[in-house]
Task: inverse folding
């Protein structure tokens, strides 16, 4: 897989002081039903910075541990990029950081979210199923995707 992220994107594990910027991005991206602070900090979180300011984040959790190098499984729960900083490789950089953890990755994405589906496909994810009425606000089918 080729990396197209711009050189100044820096991805690292999130820290407590990042929460305010993450909340702002979450609310800008998901105005219908944004996650609250408790939800954002409950799982593993990576942030992407440009000029030392958080521009996006990715939240994931372990589903199956990576015992003895067998791989394990993880799920991407949330991915969001500041609307003013899109199409600059920030989400791709976050996904590559997550992919670098190893193992099989799963995620769900709204049927109508063409931008995210395009992103995931460009990073190698494939559709493995659909879940009707998975989302609320508004109700919508989820596409289930897997990498590896
Ligand atoms: C989806 C989202 C995370 C993409 O973030 P981003 O930083 O702009 O994405 P990138 O710049 O890394 O894009 C990488 C690739 O993804 C695809 N892509 C990203 N946005 C796209 C769009 N609006 N339309 C079509 N393809 C898109 C393209 O293949 C792109 O490569 P290219 O720029 O060379 O064409 C961002 O639009 C976002 O935060 N959306 C709202 C929240 C959301 O939908 N999260 C996902 C929930 S499952």
Result:
């Amino acid at each position: 897989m080729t990396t197209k992220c711009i050189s100044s994107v820096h991805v690292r594990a999130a820290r407590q002081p990042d929460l305010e910027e993450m909340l702002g991005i979450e609310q800008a991206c998901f105005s219908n039903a944004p996650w609250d602070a408790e939800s954002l900090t409950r799982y593993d979180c990576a942030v992407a910075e440009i000029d030392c300011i958080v521009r996006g984040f990715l939240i994931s959790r372990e589903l199956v541990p990576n015992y003895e190098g067998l791989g394990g499984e993880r799920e991407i729960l949330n991915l969001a990029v500041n609307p003013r900083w899109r199409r600059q490789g920030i989400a791709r950089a976050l996904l590559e950081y997550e992919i670098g953890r190893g193992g099989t990755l799963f995620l769900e994405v709204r049927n109508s979210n063409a931008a995210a589906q395009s992103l995931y496909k460009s990073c190698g994810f494939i559709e493995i199923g659909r879940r009707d009425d998975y989302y609320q606000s508004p109700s919508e089918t989820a596409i289930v995707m897997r990498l590896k």
Residues 4, 29, 79-81, 86-92, 109, 113, 115-116, 118-119, 122 surround coenzyme A (CB under 6 Å).
